[in-house]
Amino acid sequence: MDAFVIEGGTPLKGSLRVNGSKNAALPLMATALLTDEPVVLRNAPRLADIANMRRLLHELGCDESHDDEGVMRLHSVDPSGSHARYDIVRTMRASICVLGPMLAKRGEARVSMPGGCAIGERPVDLHLRGLEALGARVTLSAGDIHVATPPGGRLIGSHVFLGGAFGPTVLGTANVMSAATLAKGTTVIESAACEPEITDLAKLLTSMGAKIEGAGSPRITVHGVESLGGADHQVLPDRIEAGTYLIAAGITDGDLELTNCPLDALLALKDHLDRAGVCVEVIDDTDPLRATVRATRRNGLEPLTVTTHPHPGFPTDLQAQMMSLLTLASGNSVITERIFPERFLHVAELSRMGARLFRQGPTVVVSGVEKLVGAPVMASDLRASAGLILAGMAAEGTTTVRRVYHLDRGYERMERTLESVGAKIKRVDERELPMMD
Ligand code: EPU
Questions:
Q1: What is the DSSP letter of 111?
Q2: 86 burial via Cβ count (<10 Å: 0-12, 13-18, 19+)
Q3: What CATH number was assigned to the domain covering residues 2-19+237-432?
């Protein structure tokens, strides 16, 4: 297993280009199951989760390739398979997004039920309720979810409500919207997720021939069509990767330019950073989803109240990184997690670096300190890892972050990116590190 060794204290300076979005690319890839023609995705990121999804689509009868320029070609050539096995699903929960497309096109799908993960329980009840509303028959056996189209072989358009206790569901919306494209009649999804990744998915489906209105709003209408064709699509840049680097500029008191930055999808972060004393200046927003921006700090960091919400609110996927930033603010901040109330595995690790954090349920009070001090820490989920790396770059001395395979699921060679703007960071084999107590 790999680890990062970080020497903190160097401000990041220079220019970075944001890669394609992991969370957009995963459901985009699943659209290949909706058509007999090829789907081409450009700017597809080279990440562990993306490689897992390719492996899954391959098992499900798709020819697939992903070249060095980020061009991915997917072509469903053998529609006989319909089983997403536990072996793959357990490595990546997002495998669930093959459920809707496979059901709609192949008439049935069997996907191993995803288990809990480091950030909480993560049920899929809303996905299933949505597909059931379209007439799917849903059964559970031997740990697999089995869904089948109603007699007649086609899903039936319907009214679907997708709001849950923690708000709308992103991948649930992707599943139901994708499945509804091939249903008979019209589907209206209420309380749909408004995330930019859903808008990007609707854009690809539309270029494949789907009839979709309202994507990006809480009500999406899908008029079912008989069949979908192939398409060529540019994947949205990754708003969470971009946000992580904007926060990195703030926490290291650096000066970073980001190109290909989906600024329009990051307005909550921009606003919070502004109030914390980190200025995100727009250099070129001719295309607001592929803008050029510059992040610098005004003076010291100011404390904030941050509450995560579904889009366009502050994203849960930037909560850990923001917490790292606020450990160095001059006062008390309050961070409340409303999407995944258990997503706080970074709290104990940041405390090892001298952060003063007090958690009660879904809320953490962050009492700002003058400095963080390098320490050996353990990454436990993707975004927690990113938070620890940011803290390590701002800390005095050496930080080692173990288990960075979590990070590799969502950031393309982050150490190289950070090194290119001045960070002192290297990837090593964990066995080279001294034993931890
Ligand atoms: N939920 C339910 N029932 C469901 C589905 C979700 O109760 O059937 C709950 C969840 O437990 C959670 C809330 O609804 O409390 C929202 O979950 P959502 O379904 O929106 O999450 P997701 O679609 O499984 C995606 C991203 C996550 C991101 C969340 C929230 C992908 C591949 N994953 O997950 O990204 O945190 O939306 O924005 O798109 C990450 O990249 O690190 C990551 C975890």
A1: E
A2: middle
A3: 3.65.10.10
**Token representation of residue 288:** 């607001």
User: To test the ligand 1 pocket, which listed residue (89, 166, 194) has its Cβ within 8 A of the most ligand atoms?
Assistant: 166
Distance 316 CA to ligand 1 centre (A): 9
CA 11 – CA 30 distance, rounded (Å): 40
CA distance linking residue 278 with residue 272, whole number of Å: 9
Tell me which DSSP letter residue 311 carries.
T
pTM of the model: 0.97
Angle between helices 319-326 and 267-276 (to 10 degrees): 10
First to last CA, the chain: 18
Alpha carbon distance 428, 230 (integer Å): 42
The atom of ligand 1 lying closest to the CA of 410 is: 41
Q: What is the sign of the dihedral through the CA atoms of 400, 371, 252 and 240?
A: positive
Report the separation in Å between the CA atom of 201 and the middle of ligand 1, taken as the mean of its atom positions.
Answer: 16
Of 53, 99, 122, best ligand 1 pocket probe by most atoms within 8 Å of the beta carbon: 122
Q: 226 C-alpha vs ligand 1 centroid, how far in Å? A: 30
Domain coordinates in residue numbering, the chain:
2-19+237-432, 22-234
| pLDDT tens digits, 86-122 | 888 888 889 999 999 999 999 999 999 876 567 777 8
Same fold, 2-19+237-432 and 22-234: yes
Residue 407 tokens, joined: 């990070």
State the helix-helix crossing angle for 382-394 and 345-352, rounded to 10 degrees: 20
Residues known to be catalytic? 117
The architecture (CATH level 2) of 22-234 comes to Alpha-beta prism (3.65)
Average pLDDT over residues 244-263: 98
Give the model's confidence band at 85: pLDDT under 50 very low, under 70 low, under 90 confident, else very high.
confident
Binding pocket residue ranges, ligand 1, CB within 6 Å: 23, 26, 94, 122-127, 164-166, 169-172, 193, 316-317, 339-340, 382-383, 410
**Averaged confidence pLDDT in the chain:** 95
